Predict the structure.
Amino acid sequence: MLFKKMIRDLWKNKVQFGAIFIMMFLGVFIFSGISSEYHGLEVALNNYIKENNLADAWLYQKEFSDSTLNELKKQTDYEQRMYVSTSNKAVDNSNIDLYITDSNKISTLKVVNGKSFNNQDDGIWLDAMYAKKNGYRLNDQITLKYQNFELSKKIIGLVYSPENIYLAKEDQLTPNRQKYGFAYVNNNSFPNTLYHPNQLVLSSKKDISKIVDQLLAGNEYKLILQKDHPSVNMLTGEIAQHRSIGLVFSLAFLFIAVLITITTMHRVLQSQRMQLGILKALGFKKRKLLIHYLSHSTFICLVGSILGYWLGLIIMPALIYPMFEEMYIYPMFEEMYVLPVLTSQPIVLGYLLPIGCTILCMLISFSVCFKYLKMNGATILYSNNLISNSSYSLAWSSNLPFRFQWNIRDIIRNKLRSLMTIFGVLGCTALLFSACGLYDTMTNLTDWNYTKLQNYKYKLNLNDNLNEEQIDYLLNQTKGQTLLESTAKIVIDEQNLDVSLTVLENNDYIKLAQDLSNFKSLKEGIALSKKTADKLDLKVGDIIKWKGNLDHQEYQSKISLIIRTPNIQGITIMKEEYLQTGHQYYPTAIIGSKNQDCLTNLTNIFLIQYQQDLLESFDVLLEAMILIIIILVLGAIILGGVILYNLGVLSYLERYYEFSTLKVLGFKDTQIQKILVQQNIWLSMIGILLGLPVGYLLIEYMISTIQDTMDVINFIALPSYLYAILGTLVISWVISKIISLRIKHIDMVSSLKAND
């Protein structure tokens, strides 16, 4: 009998229990889906690193001495190779990183098509993604140009590399696989006169950084550890970002589900006062009735959470892992990461989530049901209100219009329902506001970075063998200025933090910004990026120790500025100050904005970066952000719609008798509808006022999850405030109007008799 009653109760209160089901389903769906997605990504990355023996470190030096190699051989496994940047004659403004080596046992290539890497075949192993984008196939001929030398080879293998999971030019946030790729040839296929190994890939269980620092102290070298390599650093940061976002969204929906459970159980038990009394009078024990009413919400939560967990594992990864032939491309940033085949991987003990959610819901329901069932049958039957309201006075509102007094009284008497409505509106506003704010922030970042912060049109990356006369010629042609870009180490408590190092001649093309509109000049000392300063807890006026990777001599400098830089985090110093510290200035690039046509005739430039290409990389990032924005908007509509409709129906049912009384007293349907709509508008305005700062904090949180290599400044335009406010009000008003239509169908006679 009680089971049939439970089914009848669920159907009668389908709107309220449906809301619990939807919120519980969405909370578990998002968590299980995103957690299985990022955990699958994490497992795929770790497997790729392990199976293809990704190097533990990369050591760059112009030339390696025999003594260095012999000492390294005692403590590490290594492979020598030559790394050069080449251009493809067949594709305009296309660059290929070329590696010349005699073996490939460390950071081994994954062959998609063709032969495995070997030291006998005369040919080239080409980046499979680059080949796909430019129409290259196996056995095609490709010609690469390095300085004045042309290397023409047959493609004998299409490959992927664990070193190039993420492959982007300097200053670019997203890869351009059509313009930028990599290739391998063996040293027997490369002229001996040009073969000069300048890179070692190292593998060791020991502290490689310490080994190299001791071995090459005082020499020029550059060392990149695996954790700092872009392919690893960017992807691990992406994983952490998805973990944080999934947790926040899941907690939001689960919190709302708990609140709806509380109000729904209150409403069910309050409306069944007569049934409760009769059941107790017939001899039903409190324990049996408690189990009966607990089964209502527990059953719904169990079904919703299990279904959400199961579908989340299936649907979410399928949406995020679209297939690209044999490989998958991670689509949150289209073609940003290239990995072996991805499969969703549930987190450890993830199956306990539905059980935990169900138990939590059951405990919440128990606390509500116990208050109603602790009284005897007689008390329940002859009490109009099982849970008494606290006393309150409305004398201060006596001069207000009737509908104002009515709504104030109802809000005070039904604090929990009113609070729930405010929470629902708050969540809706916060999600809408964060969606609009994120769009503003990303679009403003592009304009700010490439029109205010950097206003050069191109950057010429120079060869090491250029002399002063050639550099002066380029400067005259481009009307530009030189730039030195390298890396440095900040020494903190005998620990080294690798950062970027930028040396500027002046601020004509690259400005130093403290915020979006405050630009400063640097006369002495150094400027430190805000993300680096925050990470090391440094401020203006502090003295830091640092050493450049070119000479590894330690220097002390005063932090004169803390600056915001979107995609390069580290130290910025002026050329004059840099020379005064004792450094040698070797320009690595020329930046300019005039005579761009002359670039096509410059043979000594191996890499040209155009501002337009950088803008396109930001556009790709913006497109990826739009997906997050769409999710936020859909979440706002679902959250706001479900909560407001559920609570609106609950409010209508709780005041059904009161509305019937008003109709009997002569109130028109439109007047009663205004009372209902007015209360929702009041509560919506309170929710909106609270939702805007919460939305701002949500934007700040989502920006904080972006990789450490990026610094995004929050920017929110005035229309975003209006869109969030008006969007929420429209949702609230539409739902209120839909619910208010029920006023016309009130049966006054049946309603008034039902309370006798």
In short: Residues 80 and 479 are 39 Å apart (CA to CA). The first helix runs from residue 2 to 12. The longest strand covers residues 77-88. The chain has 20 helices and 24 strands.
